[in-house]
Design a protein that fits this description.
The complex is a heterodimer. Chain A is α/β, with parallel strands linked by helices. Chain A has 10 helices and 12 strands. Helix content of chain A is 41%, strand content 29%. In chain A, the strands form 3 sheets. In chain A, strands 6-9-10-3-11-12 form a 6-stranded mixed β-sheet, with helices on both faces. In chain B, strand 3 and strand 4 form a beta hairpin. The chains are: A alpha/beta, B alpha/beta.
């Protein structure tokens, strides 16, 4: 379970999160929608410990453990995964070597035996199929020369490899065409285990049609201002955010 | 990035142990008498003493060069002992039993001296301080006519060969440190591959400076006759010392018609501590002469050690259609300084050279590539391709490129490319989000960056080099 209490965070001295409260239960899919600049991506990055952001107040716990005192890799090895909005390229480092290092680290944290090279490559093949990622891409350098859509698929592929307990999809749908969106979303659903939880950040209901969120929250100006079920997303799709702003007096 | 740059814990130099063996060291200082004493202790013939004396006299009249992009501590040449023999007690009598302490040292370094090396296909000539401790496999190689022994032995057993080639590629007048080495060189390896013979195993010398306050001046001479082939590996470590240790070596390689030599180095001499105290001054002259038509020579080096590195493994391409390659990864961290590169001198027709240099700078280190491509008027159709990349970790280090070109033949094609890049915080964070800790992430990225060079190393060496890159950069980012 992820629990966030009164979280304040800033970047370059500018406060973006102004007291976020949020709980995501195991097995739940929690969609976060909101206007541009509301702080949705900041929230994602703060949960995974991006050093660009500074937490000034509040707490985040995952399964009872205080995340704020852990390094990003320690958080990742607890089973927290973020699909990046804009995945960075790492020239010279092959996807295979990169994934090997990541899977080894995750297995080590779980106290599992490391995979042999053969078993690892087999796992790569299996998981690649789920998101229909081209073989050519896994032999290339990390994200280098990938199209926008390929990068997003590659993120879900990595998720498949690492089998996280809590996933953040940070605008995974942006830049994807209808078919790619379906492949990514269906891939995610296939990979999901009953207790896997996710925080899905999106502007569009299209992705949510596939993912079927249990809870939808609306974020405006650094706070979660309204929470409801999937019907809230439908209402936002039709009516935008202004009515919510009025309702909460913003 | 600054925080990141500051934090990672520095890993201490892994090979910083000293070996407790009885060592015979002569008094400090350098003079004609000392040169005579070294020659006498080694029981050398008159011609070699004469070679040493000429070199000494030339050296005594020269000044240490200052053109390197280096801030080097002053070397007091009279405060160094020029001869140390750790096998004095161990080798007494005819038993040639090796001191167990010495064997332990080599075990710690991971150099197997035993026959099991046959499985790995490597023959080792281990040099500790000035004397070659044990040459494995020489008997097996002997059957094929291959000579692989310490240069001192070679002087005794094959004086004509040594005399013919010693100083023929790097004359003692070549430079200040070459003159010094020629005067006082203690030991090193000698390799001769006869005509048409393909050496069936990698030949390897593991050098190690052990005795306190001694310099190491090894001398390596490799002669590869017509249609022959050899791959040679050189690995270096030194114990931790507060004071600077001087290492001024010479490697000479002669490559004849249709012959091929591959020379690979993994150098991790003690680089000094985190504050820049101590460390090896690595002032080395390495050169190959591609004498015959269609000859080939490649230098591959992974340099992570030494407080100061000053070396330019070079090739003189005399033979028509000869081909030379230089692949280098030079890593500097903390206060290390490296001024390294190569010289490609094209003389023969249709000669071809390739230079791939990858510099990696971290901490407050300075890393310079210095390379010369020279095309003589006779070198019709010569080609060179140079690519020099620099990777910076943090913002307090420096990377510099000094390419020199001197092209005297209009048919020559000379290309030079250079890039400078930085490991970004974004890349590191991406790795961390996938569970890879910062040190492993740096190692992953750096190895990816250097892989074009590392892939050129023989496989076992490549694995060692990869680990070394990671270890050397621990503490550079946090």
């Amino acid at each position: 379970m992820l629990k966030i209490r009164n979280l304040h965070a800033s970047i370059n001295g500018k406060e973006i999160l102004k007291g976020v409260n949020l709980t995501i239960q195991d097995g739940q899919i929690h969609a976060i929608m909101g206007t541009n600049g509301a702080g949705k991506s900041t929230l994602s990055n703060v949960i995974v410990g991006n050093p660009l952001y500074r937490v000034t107040q509040g707490e985040i716990t995952f399964n009872g453990q205080n995340l704020l005192e852990l390094k990003p890799d320690e958080r990742a090895n607890m089973g927290i995964f973020m699909s990046f909005q804009q995945p960075v390229e790492i020239p010279g480092v092959s996807m295979t070597n990169f994934m090997r290092a990541a899977v080894n680290a995750r297995y080590k944290a779980q106290g599992r035996e490391q995979l042999s090279a053969g078993d690892f490559l087999k796992l790569m093949r299996e998981k690649r199929k789920i998101v229909e990622l081209d073989t050519k891409l896994t032999s290339r350098s990390v994200n280098e020369g990938f199209s926008g859509g390929e990068k997003k698929r590659n993120e879900i592929f990595q998720m498949a490899m690492l089998e996280p307990e809590f996933c953040i999809l940070d605008e995974t749908d942006s830049g994807l065409d209808v078919d790619a969106l379906r492949i990514v979303a269906e891939g995610f659903n296939k990979l999901r285990k009953p207790n896997t939880s996710a925080m899905v950040i999106t502007h569009y209901v299209r992705l949510l049609d596939y993912l079927k969120p249990d809870v939808v929250s609306v974020m405006i100006d650094g706070r979660i201002v309204k929470t409801g079920d999937a019907t809230l997303a439908e209402m936002i799709e039709h009516r935008g955010f202004d009515w919510i702003k009025e309702e909460v007096g913003l | 990035m600054e925080d990141i740059t500051r934090d990672i814990v520095n890993k201490d130099y892994e090979y910083g142990f000293t070996t407790d063996v009885e060592t015979e060291v002569i008094d400090k200082g350098l003079s004609e008498d000392v040169v005579r004493l070294i020659s006498e202790k080694k029981g050398e013939p008159e011609w070699l003493l004469e070679f040493r004396l000429q070199a000494y006299r030339y050296w005594a009249g020269q000044k240490q060069p200052e053109w390197g992009h280096l801030d080097m501590p002053e070397i007091n040449y009279q405060d160094i002992s020029y001869y140390a023999d750790p096998t004095k007690s161990a080798m007494s009598g005819d038993s040639k039993e090796i001191d167990p302490e010495l064997m332990k040292t080599f075990d710690k370094l991971g150099i197997p001296l035993e026959e099991r090396m046959a499985l790995a296909g490597t023959a080792v000539d281990a040099v500790m301080d000035s004397v070659s401790v044990k040459t494995t496999f020489s008997a097996k190689l002997k059957e094929m006519g291959i000579i692989f022994m310490s240069i001192s032995e070679a002087v005794r057993e094959h004086p004509d060969l040594v005399r013919e080639y010693l100083g023929s590629v790097v004359p003692y007048r070549d430079n200040y440190f070459a003159a010094l080495n020629s005067a006082v060189f203690s030991d090193g390896s000698f390799v001769y591959i006869p005509k048409g013979v393909r050496c069936p195993m990698e030949l390897s010398t593991y050098f190690r400076i052990n005795a306190r306050g001694t310099g190491q001046f090894e001398r390596t001479l490799i002669v590869c006759d017509d249609d022959a082939y050899v791959s040679y590996l050189e690995g270096c470590t030194a114990p931790m010392r507060d004071e600077n240790q001087l290492h001024a070596a010479i490697v000479e390689i002669v490559v004849k018609e249709n012959a091929e030599v591959k020379y690979s180095t993994v150098q991790n001499w003690y680089p000094g501590d985190k504050n820049g105290k101590g460390g090896v001054l690595n002032l080395v002259t390495k050169r190959g002469h591609l004498r015959g038509a269609n000859s080939r020579l490649s230098w591959t080096q992974v340099e992570t050690g030494s407080a100061v590195t000053w070396k330019y493994p070079s090739c003189v391409l005399s033979g028509d259609n000869s081909q030379a390659e230089f692949y280098s990864v030079a890593v500097t961290n903390n206060f290390q300084q490296a001024d390294t590169g190569t010289k490609m001198i094209h003389i023969g027709r249709n000669t071809k050279s390739t230079i791939i240099s990858k510099g990696i700078s971290a901490g407050r280190s300075q890393n310079s590539y210095r390379g010369l491509v020279k095309v003589a008027p006779s070198a019709q159709g010569a080609r060179n391709y140079s690519s020099c990349d620099s990777l910076l970790l943090g913002s307090k280090c420096g990377a510099h490129t000094f390419p020199y070109m001197d092209v005297r033949n209009s048919s020559a094609i000379v290309e030079h490319e250079a890039t400078t890049s930085k490991i970004s915080e974004e890349q590191l964070f991406y790795c961390q989000q996938r569970g890879i800790n910062t040190e492993d992430a740096v190692s992953l990225i750096v190895n990816g960056y250097a892989k074009d060079v590392i892939n050129k190393l023989p496989m076992e060496f490549a694995v060692e080099a990869q680990k070394l890159l990671g270890v050397s950069l621990e503490g550079s980012i946090g």
